[in-house]
What does this fold into?
Amino acid sequence: MHKSTEQYRKLDRPEMKGGSGIAHFQYIWEKNSEMKSTCRMFAKITLEPGCSIGKHDHQGEEEIFYILSGEALAYDNGETVILKPGDSIICRSGEEHAMSCYGDVPVEYLAVIPVYPENKSE
It folds into this structure.
């Protein structure tokens, strides 16, 4: 199956999880209609300077970020780290994280949320 960038569903999420500004989502593959695995999200997220996704946790799933461009300031379960292109971070079930654009250029990253098999709903 193939999709071109023009086919990705786009969604702007203001003040996501209590963050600031707008998180721009491009849903690369959609759960159920396209992905039949335990993955519930595969998207590219863009945060402009001054924008963030607030601190939140995950239960029964994990979220993986892979930085494509720009830099991010990430809260990683009690630790603050700066992520650069090629860096990755994982938030496991019961842990919490947050993400913000770090610097004066947008940060773009891939976000994948696999759901633990025992929590997958058909």
Q: What stands out?
A: The two ends are 21 Å apart (CA to CA). The first strand starts at residue 9 and ends at 14. The mean pLDDT is 94. The chain has one domain: 9-63+73-117.
